[in-house]
Design a protein that fits this description.
Helix content is 32%, strand content 23%. It has 206 residues and is α+β, with helices and mostly antiparallel strands.
Length: 206
């Protein structure tokens, strides 16, 4: 049978996967965190940074923590990143940060990644840090497939994530998989104005 671009599969990322595409989808996860580091998801310095993270075992973007969605031709069209709690992780520590990102990265480390690393170190289970689907492939259930894969792999542990309060579509998707809002807080936006966010938790089924 002839393959279609809509024959999607989800699987664990591999060291040989296209880190440029993965970097692009990490950047597009939201409009606040990563655009503060660099505005362009295709930026070469950004791609270099994520490529180094992808191969570094204590990075939040280590390849083994990433699930990729691929179309029928093997192209990556979405990602989900779920990091194990209780491990001392980092974003850019020990990495040769490209010159073009050295001025913008510290504020994002301080405002977003440092609190995330502290939270995952002290928590249990898995923290979902990124979910993104290519805009051209939305509406085909890829987000659901990524969450299904994640729940199948890690659903015997507590799963939690953070979502911006106005992202109603994402909240509805997470509720579909048993996540419930457990906390409200104001989080990093890249500016002085903080964003209302929710933490959502999924407990293991008995």
């Amino acid at each position: 049978m002839k393959k279609s671009s809509f024959d999607y599969i989800c699987e664990k990322a591999l060291p040989i996967d296209d880190t440029g595409k993965i970097a692009q989808y990490i950047h597009l996860t939201d409009e606040y965190i990563y655009p503060t580091i660099c505005k362009d998801p295709q930026d070469e310095d950004w791609k270099k940074l994520i490529k180094e993270c992808f191969l570094k075992e204590d990075s939040v973007f280590f390849w083994d923590y990433i699930t990729v969605a691929k179309d029928g031709f093997g192209e990556i069209v979405g990602i989900l990143c779920a990091v194990p709690c209780g491990k001392r992780l980092t974003f850019s520590d020990g990495i040769n940060v490209p010159h073009g990102l050295q001025d913008t990265l510290p504020s994002v480390n301080e405002g977003y990644f440092d609190p995330l690393v502290k939270e995952t170190l002290e928590a249990e289970g898995y923290c979902i840090t990124n979910v993104c689907v290519d805009e051209k492939h939305r509406g085909h259930g890829i987000g659901s497939r990524l969450l299904e894969y994640c729940v199948r792999e890690y659903g015997d542990r507590v799963l939690f994530l953070d979502v911006i309060a106005h992202n109603e579509n994402a909240i509805a998707l997470y509720r579909k998989f048993g996540f419930e809002i457990t906390k409200e807080y104001y989080g990093f936006s890249g500016t002085e104005e903080l964003l209302l966010c929710y933490q959502m938790v999924r407990l293991p089924l008995d």
